[in-house]
From TrEMBL:
Region (Disordered): 1-25
Feature: compositional bias, Pro residues: 1-10
Family annotation (Gene3D superfamilies): Electron Transport, Fmn-binding Protein, Chain A (2.30.110.10)
Protein name: Pyridoxamine 5'-phosphate oxidase family protein
Pfam families attached to this UniProt entry: Pyridox_ox_2 (PF12900)
Domain of life: Bacteria
Species, as recorded: Streptomyces qinzhouensis
InterPro entries: Pyridox_Oxase-rel (IPR024747), Split_barrel_FMN-bd (IPR012349)
């Protein structure tokens, strides 16, 4: 497990240097941390048998590494250790509706993390990584639900991807064609349509035994915003 805190500025490498729409880029690690903390699903891009594979998967972040897990038989996880991968986290905050279709866009926060993940084999670190991942997706469930057995741990791969090399992009605000350009005076409604994702109400498993009430940590998440 990495212990040294990462620098407050994200590095500009050949991979992470913003080229297009550079003004939406941020080099602040705090912005990366906030984007990672706001979600729990990423897309892991990895080359498997010479073909790109982009797999949606849950993650946990401890601020220095991203933990990704799955079956030991998972092709994307088997190919990842030793290979450069890219994990992307995206939060869509709304549609940007401009006066021209060309200027339409999306308000968003997104992060891309590059690196060569390592396979976590140390049993204690593996448990800690899985706990971190569980805490990110379902805080309070580790220790409430049964923790993994040795057999389940052996059937699970855990990868740790350093957060050292990462990039962030954020777009906020109205469309860009309202103050200048040929369409500024066009009588077309323009603005944004915000988008939020939120948890609904808990739905009990029909097989749930009598008298088992949801715990406070789950009740607290009802209606809570994601992203
Ligand atoms: C939900 C969503 C929808 C989008 N829709 C479109 C679309 O339809 N058309 C379009 O052109 N663009 C779209 N974008 C922006 C898009 O993600 C790219 O930023 C942009 O297209 C520039 O791509 P590029 O290939 O030229 O990257 P470059 O500018 O060449 O990328 C250089 C480096 O910048 C970093 N980078 C680039 N994009 C991002 C990002 N989004 N987040 C974090 N780091 C990044 C990466 O490290 C990358 O290697 C969308 C973004 C989001 C989040």
């Amino acid at each position: 497990m990495r212990r040294t805190p990462l620098p407050p500025a994200l590095p500009s490498t050949d991979r992470t240097r913003h080229r297009r729409l550079r003004e939406q880029g941020s080099d602040k690690r705090a912005a990366l941390d906030a984007i990672l903390a706001a979600g729990f699903v990423c897309h892991l891009g990895v080359i498997v048998d010479g073909v790109p594979m982009v797999v949606p998967t849950v993650y946990g972040s401890d601020g220095t590494e991203l933990y990704l897990h799955g079956s030991v038989a998972s092709r994307s996880l088997v190919a990842s250790p030793g290979a450069t991968v890219c994990a992307t986290v995206t939060h869509v905050d709304g549609l940007v509706l401009a006066r021209s279709v060309f200027e339409h866009g999306v308000n968003y926060r997104s992060a891309m993390v590059y690196g060569v993940p390592r396979l976590v084999t140390d049993p204690e670190e593996k448990l800690a990584g899985l706990r971190c991942l569980t805490a990110q997706c379902a805080p309070g469930q580790w220790g409430y639900a049964r923790v993994p057995s040795r057999k389940e741990l052996a059937a699970t791969s855990l990868l740790a991807l350093s957060l050292e090399e990462a990039s962030v992009k954020i777009r906020t605000g109205p469309p860009d064609d309202g103050t200048s350009g040929p369409d500024a005076d066009r009588p077309v409604w323009a603005g944004t349509l915000p988008l939020t994702t939120a948890f609904g109400a808990l739905v009990a498993d029909p097989a749930l035994g009598e008298g088992i009430a949801p715990p406070p940590h789950l009740l607290a998440r009802e209606g809570g915003r994601v992203g």
